[in-house]
Amino acid sequence: MKFVWTIALLLVLGALFLLLQPEAPSRMNTDARAQEEALLASAATGVEATATVPVTPSNETESAPQVKDVAQALSDELAASSAARGGAQSASETDSIANQARTPLTNLSLGAPGAIAEGKMRVVPSRFESLADGTIIADDVWKITGKGTIDDPYCVSWEFLASAADTYTPRVQDYGFPERILLLHGKHLRVAGYLAFPLVAPTSSECLVMLNQWDGCCIGVPPTPYDAVEVQLQSAIPRSQRHAMAYGSIEGVFEVEPYIVDGWLVGLYMLKHSLVEQGL
Q1: Residue 233 above 80 pLDDT?
Q2: Taking the model in full, what pTM does it have?
Q3: How many Å separate Cα 76 from the centre of its chain?
Q4: How many domains does the chain divide into?
Q5: Which of 214, 198, 181, 10 is CA-nearest to residue 112?
Q6: Which of 143, 150, 155 lies closest to 192, judged by CA?
Q7: Considering the domain boundaries, does residue 266 fall inside one?
Q8: Phi and psi (nearest 5°) for 7?
Q9: pLDDT at position 20, please?
Q10: Dihedral Cα 219, 168, 74, 179, nearest 10 deg
Q11: Which region, left, alpha or beta, applies to residue 24 given φ > 0 means left and ψ of -120 to 50 means alpha?
């Protein structure tokens, strides 16, 4: 019996100890007390107290920069390659063009490829001007020499032809095609570049003329539709002769004929009734 009373007494003493112990300050009570003191202080000074809320630093990173347009990247690459081979206009040439007197041209005969009627091409207007020597300046930048005839064919740079990539990308439904290149359609054009013939045919009446050297398989830079022209020759070239022709100039009737497969542009330019002149 004494044992039971002893346990009961200990329990009562423990309860009294807990009741009489001062309350430990909690974080919530501390914050409330601090706000109360701030309010009292603001009341004394006449300034409204504002509660501050700590801001947790965000771990989010800035969004990645946008990827450069494929067509623009291709144009930049082609321009750099052309410049490395001396095909691009230098800054001094551009300045020289800008300082020369120019006459607006409004009576030029522009070509009309069938792709326009088929809805595969939309014309992007260009501005044409003439220098005193007859050189045509397109859109303040591009130089076109010659008259587009069989005796005096047009001559342009690969950079000029490749500029179509800035606006013409059928894969993403961009069908804008520069009017300055349509000036060449149906006219005689002379272009110089690396040549590639079919590998196994005993004779060939077709070839590619390209900005970059390519062996048709593994060596060199494969062409794109913007930096290569499909050539139809007036007469076939035997295998023994064509293997010695790595570079040359070709003259023929230039046509813009986009060849699109499942939305992808496979071919764009052609030269018909062409003659090749070996170079290098």
Answers
A1: yes
A2: 0.66
A3: 8
A4: 1
A5: 181
A6: 155
A7: yes
A8: -60, -45
A9: 60
A10: 100
A11: beta
